[in-house]
User: Fold this.
Amino acid sequence: MSLKRQSTTIAVLTTLLLLATALAPACRPLPPAIRVFTAIPSEISAGESATLRWQVEGATSVTIDQGVGNVPPSGATTVSPPRTLAYTITASNRGGTVTKSVVIYVTPSVLTPPRDTSPPVVKDVNSTPKDETTVVISWVTDEPATCKLEYGKNTQYGDTVKLEGLNTTHSVTLQGLDPNTIYHFRIAATDEAGNETVSSDNIFTTPPPKSPFSLVLHSLEWGRRSEFEGEAYGEGFGRKLIYLKGAAQNNSNATLRSVMCTMHCWSGSKLVKSEVYVYQAPILPGHVFKFEITTIDDPSVDNVTIEFADHLGRQMRVTQK
Assistant:
């Protein structure tokens, strides 16, 4: 090949190469165009929804993340993000890949505690006489509550005492009551949520009025003894007794018509039984009388006490000499 022909061939090849290089960009497609990608609304509360809308041109593949997946070039979908999230749309073709993001802001919901529908529980109800006309009623509720106490001589009650404030321990002092009288009472308790409970009927008895008479106890003792009961076919038999005996002086300025002596037999704090003895003879002021009370023995008894009342059943004040 001649030198001239060789040069011509090289020139043609170079021209073709330059032409191919110049035409190459014109043959590659343009990347996709994301015309629209919005979230409406862009701010929601937890549990609410928003709508994603998009419009893409020139894409062969369109996807949205956060679990949405493949989508058509144009469309809309509803999403309910559990928290603030960014959604990104990705569009691709042979010319490249483009993305765009929107953020949906989620306001957390405020947890509302369940409504209280349980009423208070009234328990540990006690009535304690202070004297023959005064009684203290106390009780406890299992949650703070305002309370009122209704009381009277029957289950119609009639009188009411209201306590102010939310508390768990409650106490009412009832005054001006009739001595030696049965009273009925019940308690209504209301908690802060307005739930109310009313207790069942309760009763207390006021003590009898105190006697104007008084005694000075000179001596007192108790014990156990066996007593010969009788004879059957020539043979005697005995029984075991608990006895209480002593002496007391009329410390009043008036004559006592009679004295009612009541022996109480106890086993620990439990009252086992009581026995009553009445001294019938008049007792002048300053005079001393003796008494003795017996009852069938009970092995559980570990203590014995005594109370004195006048002829009207009124409890007498007793002092120890």
Observations:
- The domain at 33-107 is CATH 2.60.40.10 (Immunoglobulin-like).
- The first strand starts at residue 33 and ends at 40.
